[in-house]
Write a structure and sequence with these properties.
The protein is α+β, with helices and mostly antiparallel strands. Helix content is 49%, strand content 9%. The protein is globular, with a radius of gyration of 21 Å.
Amino acid sequence: MTAAPVDRSISDIDLGSLSFWARPHEDRLAAFERLRQIEKPMYFGEPRVPGLRSGKGFHALVRHKEVTDALRNPQVFSSYPSVSIPPPPRWAKYIFGNSMVNLDDPQHGRLRRIIARAFTPRMLNKSEEDVTANVNRIIDRVIEHGPGGDFITMVANPVAAGVICDMVGVPEEHRKLVIDRVHTWADYTGVRPGFLSSLRLAAKNTRGMLGLRSMVIELGKERRKSPKEDVISSLVTANIDGEKLTSMELGAFFTLLVTAGINTASNGMAHGLRLLTEHPEQRELLLSDFDRYMPTAIEEIIRYVTPGMRTGRTITTEHEVNGQTFLPGDKVVLYFLSANRDETVFTDPDAFDITRDPNPHVGFGAPGIHFCLGANLVRKEMTVAFRELFRRLPEIRAVGKPRQLRSNFENGLTELRFEF
């Protein structure tokens, strides 16, 4: 690996250290602004946790063009063997299966063809009815509870989890398990350095993911015998050119769906309420014509927040980016949160503007084989949630200072107090 020399102006920035990701989000964005001014992609090492999360280091792609070019070029920037940088331990895929995000074509294309059956317009239209009913049940409980509380636990998480579980067909008695396991995964990305603490959290995470996998495999067996109008039934009965999902593939996809689907929608809703509270003129504009402004408001929230901040790739052949030569086996990390603030692409990128158009953000990835399958579902969830919240609780607003999740992957909140 040919590492670029360290520029003194960024000597305080270490993207490979979890201490960097403990900084306030505004500080992290300011650091990426400085990194975008450096000509060559910078190299960063990583803290080593023997047997768990260790890697040889990576180059950071921080500009919009660098990130989108990489996403559109899987022949050079491969998702295999893992988009996690550093990669998970080798034994993980034998327990959990290999998620489609860690595959390139033709393996990725095969899974996507099967799974796309579960995200048809008919299924998404049905989901809007379920989302509306779910949101209103949650608002009923909020009103019964009275003003004040944590928006994450009372609204955002239940809405996001309810939608995914309704679509997938997860029974009510299993839903608390789903939410608990999802947040264990989020915590794992922000674990403090140290072997023992990492080992304990990894063990907890493994038990949790195994619980999810076992649950969905059992549900899959039931749906094969008695199909219903849900995602699991669509997946286990799908037969595209003779191809079906194996039980291991079903478990891996379900884990991806619940972790990515719940966290993206939940963080989008929580940050959305925060932003609309901090920018009352944008809130007033949105409520002046909700149907007109909500589509662009969602895209701006996703751009501004970037719930999933990064992804990783492995170089397959010698390749140059801005004068930096990558060699086969080199690791690169694509920082979506930096690309979404690139001043060469977005006018006044630090301004929150719900009318921004065009808005070529990469919050759902870039057009290509790995563009987020659930993007339209997240948009639908956020639209319905804000429509019903503002209709029934027109004075709802965030209060106090939110608590930021300490993670190098997810731009999440662990608490957001609200009133109405």
